[in-house]
Structures are given as structure tokens and as C-alpha cells.
Amino acid sequence: MNSVCKPLFLLFIFYFGGHQAASAQLDNRIFKQQFNDLKQRVYKSFETYNNVQTTDTATIVIDSLSIDTNATPTIDQDFSKNYTEEYKSGFSFGNLFYCKNNEFGEPNNPGQTFFGNQLWFGGKHYFSQNISSSLGCLLQYDFGDEKFPSKFLPIFNLQYNTAQSRLILGSLLGNTNHNLIEPIYNYENTFTKPVEYGIQYFKFSKFINYQTWLDWRQFAKVETSQQEKISFGQTVLIQLLDTSKYPVYLSMPGSLLVYHQGGEALNVPQKIQTNLNGNLGFRISDRNNSFRLESFIVFSNDVSPSINHAFKNGNAYLTNFTVFFREKLKLNQIKNHRLVASYYKASEYYSPLGAPLFTSELYSKPYLNARNRELVMLRYQYEANFYFLNSQNIFIDFRVEPIYHIQDKLFAFSTGVYLKIQIGHNAIH
Fold first, then answer.
1. 228 in a domain, yes or no?
2. pTM (2 decimals)?
3. 196 lies in a domain?
4. Which end of the chain is more exposed for a tag (fewer CB within 10 A), N or C?
5. 375: three-class secondary structure by DSSP
6. 132 CB contacts (<8 Å, ≥6 apart)?
7. Which CATH number do you get for residue 308?
8. Quick check: helix, strand or coil at residue 276?
């Protein structure tokens, strides 16, 4: 991206903000926090739920669980009316079993296996319709780890909600809830950093949906010279057509993610790092969401005082074509099959938080790099949602992802199996 285009791109992103801007190639709904409290009120009037990503089907974006309807209401007609209904405080329990195996077989990205279980529990209390607070904890055990639990993380936040916005202080709706594409943000962060802390703001309207957040990933320790790590992001989705009047959905997703690693007055000075990653794309899908075509331009830029990586600037291009097959069972239970064909090409692209498969440099190892990357992928995903205790709270996700490196003439693959159970009126994670 040349010197003229990049400032215009950054200005565009910061002007519009964004929410649910650029979802990953595969639907990562199983990793998202379910907005059960808001979702049930916003979509209460619809008879059928669907699990296609909301960015393509609904004017009101809450999470990736969307609706299958011929008429999408405006936010003033439905959201405000249902939002005033009673809010109930309560406890919730959740469990995520994960098994993901990456067999990439290349020097700069040998792959990794994630195999374990996450458990979270706690409660949510409504002080009023607008103000609520969550308190609980998350336990994670990576199978084979001598430490038990592998992670013990508190969950606590204060939320302020209105009919068209949400402000969160404390533990965030993080990771895949940001809806960044995988070259910018790796959904495996769900296992490596399951809880984010900071501040987050959502704004949803009829044509522009907005999310911005600050994630304080690590604070500085002067005595041990530990650097602070911060990420700041914004995502945007602009609906280009009134979805209630046209048979197709046209939207423009974009995002900007800033990663900073620094700190002052450390006993042992450390190099400061600041990296920018962003994307701008175009998405089209039919009204029934049987197919979706999307294409993204992606960039990376190291704006640190001194270069910390093999490449200062990079760019990439990603195109996905998705076909959906659905089975609707009794009680609105759903089975969903998704087939995604992807083409990806990158030159000197690097993202500190992105999936290593898409970066030219392996994170923390700049001497391992592949300047140019060209991949084709054919991904299959099976999703199923079932009812338990009168609620649609059992989720199954299975993935097979064969990958071919065009330049290296190398085959690779990734597989994943996930099971999630969510019980309780208000999900805290």
C-alpha cells in the first residue's frame, strides 16, 4: 500500500469506527459470548434462528447468531420496544472442550496442537435496565500440563447498555467477538489468552455498526524489566443497501488493530514495538444466505522507533467464497454445513496477533520468515446447536481445513473439534 493510500485508509477507518467488521473465513460463533439477555429481546418476534454470521443478515448486530427472515426490522421499531422488557439477574455456567491440530510442516510455521478444557462460572446482576455487572472466573486446563489449572482468570466487568450501544469496563467481549479476519487476529487466542481486560464500546445502527476496544494485555514491571503490552482496535461494517428492500446484502467491512509493546524506566531498557494491521473489504451474499463472496485488502506497518522485524511494511489479499447447507430440526435446532474456498497472497506481511499461517514471519522469531506466501484453502465446517434445559445452549463445531502452498508446492492441513455447553440466563463469558 503506497504512501498516499495508507493515510486515506487510516482516516477512513477512524472516521467510521465499526462492529462485526470482518468476520473470519469460518464462523467462530462457538467461541463467542452469547448475548442471551439482549438477543432474546431483540429477536423475540422472529420464529426462526439461524447461525449464519449476523454481519450478512441482520441490521441489528449483536453476535454471530443471526436470523433467517425476509424482513429485517429497523432498530427503532424492534430493538427499543423489546429493550424495555424486564431484565433478570442470575448465574451461569459454561464449558468449552477444544481440540485443534495444526500440521503445517514449514520452518516459519511448524504448527501446534491445542487440547484442553475451559470452565467458567459466575453471575450477572442488573442494577437497572441500563447498568449491569458480571463477576466470576475462568479455569483452563491444557491436557498434559503439569500445572493445574493451566490458567485461572477472573471475570469481572461493569456494563452500561442503551438501545443502540454498549459500554464495558473490565473483562471484555474479546477474541473472536472482535470479528477480525485471521491474518490480523488469530482465533487460537481463545485458548492462549481467553480473557481480555480493558474498555470496550459498541454502537449499532441501521447502516453502520461500530466496535472499539483497548486490551491491556500485560502491565510493565520495572524491577524485572517486563514491558507493557497493549492492543487497540476498531472494526466497521457499513451496509451499502437497505436490506429490507433488496434481494442481496452488500456491505463494506474494515478494521484497524494497533499492537504496542513498551514501557518506561525499566531496569534493563527494552526495544519499543508498535505495529499496525488493517483491512478493507467488500462482501456480497444472497437474501437466503446460501452463498457469500468477500474480498479483503490487508496491510501491515511497523512504526516502531527502530525496526524490530524482518519487514517494515507488508500487504496481503484474501478472497473467500462460502456456500452454506442447513438442516432445520424440531424446536428450531440447527445443523449447518459450511464450505469455504479461499485464496490468499501476501508479501512481507506481519501481524503480532495474527494467525502464523498467514504471516511472513513467525511471531517472536524474525529470523524465520517467508517473504512471499500464496495459499489456497478448501475449508469444511459442521455446526450443530441443540436445546438443553429449554435453551439452545449446546454447540458442536467440527472443522477440516486442507491447505496448499502454491509456491512451495506443499500440502498442509488443520482439524478441530469443539464442544460448548452454556447454562444460565446470563452468560458471563
1. no
2. 0.82
3. yes
4. N
5. strand
6. 87, 89, 124, 125, 126, 158, 159, 161
7. 2.40.160
8. strand
How many domains are contained in the chain?
Answer: 1
H or E element in which residue 8 lies: helix 5-16
Dihedral of the alpha carbons of 357, 361, 365, 368, in degrees to the nearest 10: 90
The boundaries of the domain holding residue 362 are 5-223+234-258+274-424
Q: Determine the Cα–Cα distance for residues 34 and 47; give it in Å rounded to an integer.
A: 19
Q: Record the cell numbers describing residue 17, joined without a space.
A: 469506527
| Rounded CA separation 408/402 (Å) | 15
Give the separation between CA 145 and CA 138, rounded to whole angstroms: 17
Residue 42 located in a structural domain: yes
